[in-house]
Specification:
Shape: rod-shaped
Distance between the termini: 157 Å
Helix content: 10-25%
Number of helices: 6
Order of helices and strands: HEEEEEHEEEEEHEEEEEHEEEEEHH
């Protein structure tokens, strides 16, 4: 009985002390005041801090200027902390606490600490479809947009280049302390290929490269790493009418071209292949008159014929109907191949459309305007009078005679 009374007395004393401490704490609590406490409990959204008879909530967003995934990353039960009273309601006795508010906001010195152009190191904190967030210091993160990750590679997703937790170096592009934003760049650590290109090349220079891609309107050629130039289909040949550039060129082909222009604002390079040679049209009729037989080399095979090179700068088309299949060593017919050499006749030179058409059926006088499926005899056509053996009037009478007679009989009746 005495022991029970002693235990009860101790409880009463403890409760009394707690009440006194709580009263004292409540009397001294006010918003903005810095107080000390002990971590009493930890949850996913924060930690409860015993301030002395009364608990306050330290929310996860108020623990650090930096990113906190879970309060257990920073605290464990029993830790002593110094916090700031953010809100206090005497009626409900609810207290909101902040730990980061006891430290200076790092964004206050961000503009001085991270000027544009500075090379910095940071940790990749998260990756999205449009970029990666990099922590430069606790509370200060910057974004590397996907467009700032590589000069030469088309980055489909940032995760192809970076990983969460990876420490990387990058360059500060822009700082907005008020909005708490820093733009970072990864590709800026390497020389800009465009700058290197413009220092090396000028309009009129000859370049060599590989065909990277082909579109309906032109051919894209890789000049330097990260810099492509485009040859419009109208600049592929002086004498071949190119409707589809893929008829003449294929991806991976080695080609040479002349730089026609450089657009610095849009970072575009216009190229020309036909400009490697002088315009042949001023002298083409005297050099290649119709019916002249020339030696040519096959440069491309298409469904409607074969493109051949007559000489440098002069190409032409031999339509399918004007081809004569080549023979193999056994004398058997075979298909044409790029590189085959052949003799052909200049069939037509179209100065309006600027194209040259040839025929391997030498001596038949084929014209591009006709394009007959079956070749007709060269004998002159007979007139209607010659075919019927009479005049046009007699022909009409023969065709309409019966009808005229019938009408005449009706008239007499």
């Amino acid at each position: 009985k005495k022991r029970g009374n002693i235990v009860l007395s101790r409880r009463v004393l403890l409760e009394k002390e707690r009440d006194e401490q709580k009263t004292k704490t409540l009397e001294t609590l006010e918003e903005g005041k810095v107080v000390r406490g002990v971590i009493k409990n930890i949850t996913e959204y924060g930690a409860f801090v015993d301030l002395g008879g009364i608990d306050g909530l330290l929310h996860i967003t108020d623990m650090s200027w930096g990113r906190v995934n879970h309060p257990e990353e920073l605290f464990k039960v029993g830790d002593e902390v110094t916090v700031k009273v953010l809100k206090y309601n005497p009626e409900t006795e609810r207290v909101s606490l902040g730990l980061k508010q006891t430290q200076e906001d790092p964004w206050n010195h961000a503009e001085e600490a991270y000027p544009a152009g500075k090379r910095v190191s940071g940790k990749v904190m998260s990756i999205t479809d449009y970029g990666a967030f990099v922590e430069l210091e606790p509370g200060v993160e910057g974004l590397i947009h996907v467009s700032e990750m590589s000069w030469t590679k088309k980055v489909k997703h940032p995760s192809k280049l970076l990983e969460v937790g990876q420490t990387i170096e990058c360059q500060v592009l822009e700082v907005d302390a008020k909005q708490k934003r820093i733009s970072l760049g990864l590709k800026q650590l390497e020389p800009d290929p465009w700058s290197l290109f413009t220092e090396k090349y000028s309009p009129g220079d000859k370049i060599a490269g590989k065909v990277r891609s082909i579109t309906d309107y032109g051919v894209f050629i890789g000049i330097e790493e990260g810099v492509d130039g485009m040859v419009h289909k109208s600049d592929l040949s002086w004498t071949a009418k190119v409707n589809n550039p893929a008829d003449l060129y294929h991806k991976g082909d080695d080609v040479e071209a002349i730089i026609l222009s450089i657009n610095h604002d849009e970072k575009k390079v216009s190229l020309g292949i036909k400009q490697l040679f002088d315009d042949p049209w001023p002298t083409i009729f005297s050099e290649f008159p119709p019916s002249k037989v020339v030696h040519a080399k096959v440069i491309s095979l298409v469904d409607y014929g074969v493109f051949v090179r007559i000489r440098d700068g002069v190409e032409g088309l031999i339509p399918t109907g004007d081809l004569v299949e080549p023979k193999n060593e056994a004398g058997e017919s075979r298909a044409f191949e790029v590189g085959d050499e052949l003799d052909a006749e200049i069939a037509n030179i179209d100065s309006q459309d600027r194209r040259v058409t040839l025929s391997m059926r030498i001596g038949e006088g084929v014209s591009i305007q006709n394009k007959p499926e079956k070749r007709e005899s060269k004998a002159p056509k007979k007139s209607a009078e010659e075919k019927t053996g009479g005049t046009i009037g007699e022909l009409i009478k023969q065709k309409l005679g019966d009808k005229l007679n019938v009408k005449g009989e009706d008239k007499d009746d």
